[in-house]
């Protein structure tokens, strides 16, 4: 599905300095002028994150995996106006903000950290790092690679403290439960692997097919988990009995991202057909669909106040959606469904 690998092409930012270039990522001063997008098309946003000040940070890549990519920042008020913070030689796949640090991972397996306009590369080289999460209660990271490895990275020494073989296929996503004592690993061969934390001992495995699982989330209480991926199913899982539950919804195309809305029964699924679908976990039905984003959805990130959703697309840059209009329609549909028929059995 992803584009073919062509020759590597280096791209240097004239505003960077040699010491930063040596780190493997090119970063310009945070005083660089904002670069406005004159044409929103063909801007591929592969990952998004909000920082504590309400800025939206993202990774902007091109259609070919070995072409340069940029780390960008923008605002919810003007998401089409980007400020380029730095560049890498190959496509970027994940961005994560932890305190004052911004972490990015690239197609070649590198992991980089930005802080105060400076950039450094971790002493770690994996294969295509797609998954990256913060370790609960610390500034450390867990990353997942194409060859099924999980590595724990420390910010103090910019190095890996351990690496384990977690899966036989590529790792697409990693999620910690709310208690912080277990994590789930989503793989390219349709498995969800459960591991205890911090020992990383096996705790179980879930599967219902062989198609890639792109996104996983623990639900409140940590007794259930939801997943979405290439089989187009918004799928629920029983973690106490390690078994599949009834499918909550089926989307028209691959599910790439899931967002669970706090203090509600709603989960949002972003899909390759450019649609966002809202499902009600209580009634176990789809209750809202928006198809106004123009191209495939590759990233979704909930604002710190849970009022806005940043959406990264394959060809149309970043969109920011106020959630209340969607949720009002979703609530109305949920109420109507409750009157029509009872919820599906668990």
What oligomeric state do the depicted chains represent? single chain
* Share of residues in strands: over 45%
Instruction: Report the total helices.
Output: 2
Helix share bin? under 10%
Largest sheet: 6 strands, antiparallel
pLDDT averaged residue by residue: 87
Which class do the helix and strand fractions yield? mainly beta
Shape: globular
- Radius of gyration based on Cα positions: 20 Å
Residue runs with pLDDT of under 50 for 5 or more positions: 1-40
The CATH architecture name of the domain at 248-346 reads Beta Barrel
CATH topology label of the domain at 248-346: Thrombin, subunit H
- Distance separating the two termini: 34 Å
Strand segment tally: 30
In the CATH scheme, the class of the domain at 248-346 would be Mainly Beta
Short key terms for the protein model shown above:
6-stranded antiparallel β-sheet; 346 residues; disordered N terminus; mainly beta; Thrombin, subunit H; 2 helices; single chain; globular; 5-stranded antiparallel β-sheet
Question: Mind explaining what this structure looks like?
Answer:
- The protein has 346 residues and is mainly β.
- It has a domain at 248-346: Thrombin, subunit H (Beta Barrel).
- Helix content is 6%, strand content 46%.
- The protein is built from two helices and 30 strands.
- The chain has helices at residues 18-21, 323-340; strands spanning 26-27, 35-36, 44-50, 56-61, 69-74, 81-88, 92-98, 101-106, 111-115, 118-121, 131-134, 141-144, 149-154, 159-165, 171-176, 182-187, 191-196, 202-207, 213-218, 224-229, 233-238, 243-244, 249-250, 255-260, 266-271, 276-280, 285-290, 297-302, 308-313, 318-322.
- Strands 1, 2, 3, 4, 5 and 6 form a six-stranded antiparallel β-sheet that branches. Strands 19, 20, 21, 22 and 23 form a five-stranded antiparallel β-sheet that branches. A four-stranded antiparallel β-sheet has the order 7-8-9-10, with no helix packed on it.
- A hairpin with a 3-residue loop joins strand 20 and strand 21 (233-238).
- It is globular.
- The two termini are 34 Å apart.
């Amino acid at each position: 599905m992803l584009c073919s690998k062509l020759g590597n092409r280096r791209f240097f930012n004239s505003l960077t300095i040699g010491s930063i270039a040596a780190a493997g990522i090119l970063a310009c001063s945070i005083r660089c002028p904002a670069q406005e997008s004159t044409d929103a098309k063909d801007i591929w946003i592969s990952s998004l994150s909000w920082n504590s000040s309400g800025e939206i940070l993202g990774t902007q890549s091109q259609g070919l995996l070995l072409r340069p990519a940029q780390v960008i920042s923008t605002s919810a008020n003007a998401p089409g106006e980007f400020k380029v913070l730095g560049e890498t030689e190959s496509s970027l796949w994940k961005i994560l903000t932890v305190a004052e640090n911004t972490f990015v991972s690239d197609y070649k397996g590198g992991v980089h950290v930005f802080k105060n306009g400076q950039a450094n590369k971790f002493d770690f080289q994996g294969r295509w790092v797609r998954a990256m999460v913060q370790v609960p209660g610390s500034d450390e990271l867990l990353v997942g690679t194409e060859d099924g490895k999980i590595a724990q990275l420390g910010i103090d020494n910019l190095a890996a403290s351990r690496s384990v073989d977690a899966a036989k296929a590529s790792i697409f996503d990693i999620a910690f439960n709310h208690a912080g004592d277990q994590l789930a690993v989503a793989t390219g061969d349709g498995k969800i692997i459960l591991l205890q934390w911090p020992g990383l001992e096996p705790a179980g495995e879930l599967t219902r097919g062989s198609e890639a699982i792109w996104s996983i989330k623990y639900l409140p209480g940590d007794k259930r988990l939801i997943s979405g991926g290439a089989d187009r199913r918004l799928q629920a899982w029983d973690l106490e009995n390690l078994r599949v539950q009834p499918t909550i919804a089926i989307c028209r195309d691959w599910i790439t991202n899931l967002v669970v809305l706090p203090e509600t029964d709603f989960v949002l699924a972003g899909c390759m057909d450019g649609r966002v679908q809202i499902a009600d976990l209580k009634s176990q039905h789809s209750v809202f669909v928006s198809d106004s984003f123009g191209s495939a959805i590759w990233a979704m990130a909930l604002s710190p106040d849970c009022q806005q959703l940043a959406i990264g697309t394959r060809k149309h840059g970043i969109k920011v959606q106020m959630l209340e209009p969607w949720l009002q329609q979703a609530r109305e549909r949920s109420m109507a469904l409750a009157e029509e028929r009872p919820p599906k059995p668990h």
